[in-house]
Amino acid sequence: MMSLRDVLKRAEVNKVAIGHFNFSDLVAFNAIVAAARDQELPVMVGVSEGEREFTGVQQAAALVRAIRDEYNYPIFLNADHTHSIAHAEEAAKAGFDEIIFDGSALPFEENIKQTKKAIEAIKSINPAILVEGEIGWIGASSAVIDKVPEGVGVLTTPEEARQFVDATKVDVLAPAVGNMHGMLASMVHGNVQKRLNIERIAEIKASAKIFMTLHGGSGTNDDDFKRAIKAGMTIVHVNTEIRIAWRRGVEAGLAAEPNEVAPYKILTPAVEAVKKVVSSRLALFSSK
Ligand code: G3H
Ligand code: ZN
């Protein structure tokens, strides 16, 4: 079984990206696994602090382990947007492959200080875990939002990126490059798409020289995705699109079977809806 680091190295060389999809339940988890297995692609699944409070930290790790063991499948688990050292340590002990220590809301120097502490704590539990750090503000929630959150839109500079990477020694960097967490209603309707600063991505990659993650993937222009991956993004996160598909699928399942009480029958359209989103994103991120 290849390690996450090796899978990322290979993707970086081939100028493709590994899709990272969040889940809160078995509907989304099984849909993500089915989509990845259909295309025989490595995949990352993530649980934020809120998501893993719902799934359970050990339970999320056990789900991923079960797929790995049963199919010898390259699926990797990320502790998404972790804000405290205690939560990072909990995920490290549970066997997560990657932990994102998200200090992006802190002043830059404090972010460096906290991220360094987190890395020390995580690597002392398991040095093989990849630690991702975040700089720049891109908003905080994978939700349908009314307006662009204040402060979003300021791009990370190549100098900041290098300074952060040199000082912290993170394995993966998440910069702000025009991306944003969540979707405006206009993005859900498809009238507006997120646009990325490709030139800046290439400059940051040249300066930071490490793996980079594009957060806030939902609602991004397809061509920008492709160009961002070519310019140096090796992981792409998608969540809001999955949550919307999940909700629509659940609503469709309930509407189709008003008298049904078996969850696995009601929830089948939700699995299909999430699988469709993940399949199309995986195909895009892996195409050359
Ligand atoms: O970490 C999660 C992602 O960055 C999700 O962003 O909800 O805009 O797709 P998104
Ligand atoms: Zn994110």
Walk me through the topology:
Blueprint: H1 4-14, E1 18-22, H2 26-39, E2 43-47, H3 49-55, H4 57-71, E3 75-82, H5 85-94, E4 98-101, H6 108-125, E5 130-134, E6 144-145, H7 158-168, E7 172-174, E8 183-184, H8 185-188, H9 198-208, E9 211-214, H10 222-231, E10 235-238, H11 240-256, H12 263-266, H13 268-286
Parallel strand pairs: 1-2, 1-10, 2-3, 3-4, 4-5, 5-7, 6-8, 7-9, 9-10
Helix pairs in contact: 2-13, 5-6, 7-9, 9-10, 11-13
The chain binds glyceraldehyde-3-phosphate (G3H) and zinc ion.
Residues 81, 181, 215-216, 237 line the site of zinc ion.
How would you describe what is shown here?
The strands form two sheets. The chain has an eight-stranded parallel beta barrel with strand order 1-2-3-4-5-7-9-10, surrounded by nine helices. Strands 6-8 form a two-stranded parallel sheet. By secondary structure, it is an alpha/beta fold. Helix 5 runs parallel beside helix 6 (108-125), helix 7 runs parallel beside helix 9 and helix 9 packs parallel to helix 10. Helix content is 52%, strand content 15%. The model has no long low-confidence stretch (mean pLDDT 98). It is globular. It starts with a helix and ends with a helix. Zinc ion (ZN) binds next to loops.
